[in-house]
């Protein structure tokens, strides 16, 4: 009896210890939206790696090697679009379904998706769920300090934002699919096959992934300008971000009522789109392997398409490896910037570039503060923008050096594919498909860090925020 009593007590103590450890681990993961995002993204990558490794997912019925399955899982969940296998021929119908589901899950953003599921199940959003969902629309919340809510989505609007995210994704992809269906048929695709390829292409354009389900990619549709224009429209809508779509839905063409974030995102996106196209025309109009053999109209359209895809779209109708070195550098710069915050695009984001450009302009004009459209941009936003660029540049540099050392490939081509992975673009000079397994893992990690976001990663790794009740003496070092 005494032994049973001691055993029972030990069992209770052990059980309580297990429950306590589980509760502490759960609290550590869910108390911080950033840590929760990293945890869920990692879990999704592992799940899809296992699914892509199954024989039923491959067209030949054989298990896909671990490196290829992992890379495809990361590229799918992170909506990147790079691949180490031929996406049109390697995967079975089951594999294509996994890709389709994965990119839509990854595009919504894990925190947003978790909040939508919670809203569906419980019919309401608690404060923690709102904070987690709002973290997708404003990375500054990850730091736990005071946040200027005036230029982003307020907590009271999170429920409306989630509805906009879910509804806009369904509606936009459905409209794109309807528009793409006749184009696929005119391109020679069987009407029955086009029924699933149209939604597939629609999802790949809106999520800014760029995978193609058919052998040869977009090459059979290189002259189908209507289809290419629809794909560009899908990429643009996906790249501006859900908070901007939310603002446009609420205020439509009342520009004065748009948030500063929406104004900066749309203006910078449109500006880079046309400037990028102009740069590609100037650099490639004499290159016989790209635009050299085209007339003025075709050259202009192809330049616009390439500019749109380097923003995170990932589709390509020319051989990227045939671009001039100067064009590869220009494309790398556009890819590094990427699309809008809380969007399906990657990169450091257009608002980050806009804030830094405004800060430089204000410094040159001798202004004491950074201002735009009658609003003052606080210093904490400028610090986050600077840290995003610094962390992004560091990740790209380390990844490029490592892969270049492992492969001995030309550094300009390695740099292009690394930035394409970090910015979740999906364009490739051709070296990604030839990488050894060690370099595949490095590039997969780069894609993961690029999609999760440098601010989110830093906040997830950092300890809980601490309040400092004192101020150190000021001393100004010499800079510049």
UniProtKB/TrEMBL annotation:
Gene Ontology CC, one term: plasma membrane
UniProt record, GO biological process = metal ion transport
Positions of transmembrane segments? 36-59, 97-121, 161-181, 225-249, 261-283, 333-361, 381-401, 439-463
List UniProt keywords, sorted A-Z.
Answer: Cell membrane, Ion transport, Membrane, Transmembrane, Transmembrane helix, Transport
Pfam families listed in its UniProt record:
TrkH
Main localization category:
membrane
Task: Describe its membrane topology.
Answer: Multi-pass membrane protein
Record's protein name: Trk-type K+ transport system, membrane component
Q: Which organism is it from?
A: Microbacterium saccharophilum
């Amino acid at each position: 009896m005494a032994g049973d009593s001691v055993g029972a007590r030990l069992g209770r103590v052990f059980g309580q210890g297990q429950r306590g450890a589980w509760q502490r681990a759960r609290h550590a993961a869910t108390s911080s939206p950033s840590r929760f995002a990293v945890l869920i993204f990692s879990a999704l990558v592992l799940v899809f790696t296992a699914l892509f490794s199954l024989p039923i997912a491959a067209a030949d019925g054989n298990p896909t090697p671990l490196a290829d399955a992992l890379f495809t899982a990361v590229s799918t969940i992170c909506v990147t679009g790079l691949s180490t296998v031929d996406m049109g021929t390697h995967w079975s119908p089951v594999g294509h379904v996994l890709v389709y589901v994965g990119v839509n899950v990854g595009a919504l953003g894990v925190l947003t998706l978790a909040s939508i599921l919670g809203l569906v199940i419980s019919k309401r959003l608690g404060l923690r769920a709102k904070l987690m969902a709002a973290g997708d629309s404003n990375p500054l919340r990850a730091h736990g300090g005071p946040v200027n809510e005036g230029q982003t989505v307020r907590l009271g609007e999170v429920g409306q934002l989630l509805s906009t995210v879910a509804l806009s994704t369904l509606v936009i992809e459905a409209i794109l699919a309807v528009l793409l269906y006749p184009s696929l048929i005119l391109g020679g695709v069987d009407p029955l096959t086009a029924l699933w390829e149209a939604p597939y292409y629609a999802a790949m354009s809106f999520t800014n992934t760029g995978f193609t389900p058919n052998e040869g990619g977009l090459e059979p549709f290189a002259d189908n300008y209507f289809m290419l224009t629809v794909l560009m429209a899908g990429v643009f809508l996906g790249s501006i971000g859900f908070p901007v779509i939310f603002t446009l839905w609420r205020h439509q063409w009342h520009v004065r009522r748009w948030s500063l974030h929406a104004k900066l995102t749309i203006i910078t996106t449109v500006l880079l789109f046309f400037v990028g196209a102009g740069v590609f025309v100037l650099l490639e109009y004499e290159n016989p392997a790209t635009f050299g053999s085209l007339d003025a109209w075709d050259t202009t359209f192809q330049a616009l398409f390439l500019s749109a895809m380097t923003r995170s779209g990932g589709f390509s109708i020319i051989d990227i490896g045939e671009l001039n070195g100067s064009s590869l550098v220009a494309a790398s710069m556009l890819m590094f910037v990427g699309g809008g915050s809380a969007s399906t695009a990657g990169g450091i984001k257009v608002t980050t570039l806009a804030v830094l450009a405004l800060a430089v302009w204000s410094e040159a004009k001798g202004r004491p503060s950074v201002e735009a459209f009658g609003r003052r941009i606080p210093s904490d936003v400028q610090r986050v923008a600077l840290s995003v660029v610094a962390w992004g540049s560091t990740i790209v540099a380390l990844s490029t050096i490592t892969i270049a050392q492992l492969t001995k490939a030309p550094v300009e081509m390695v740099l292009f594919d690394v930035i394409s992975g970090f910015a979740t673009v999906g364009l490739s000079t051709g070296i990604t498909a030839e990488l050894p397994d060690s370099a595949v893992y490095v590039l997969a990690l780069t894609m993961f860090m690029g999609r999760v976001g440098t601010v989110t990663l830093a906040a997830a790794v950092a300890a809980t925020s601490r309040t400092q009740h004192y101020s150190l003496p000021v001393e100004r070092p010499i800079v510049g």
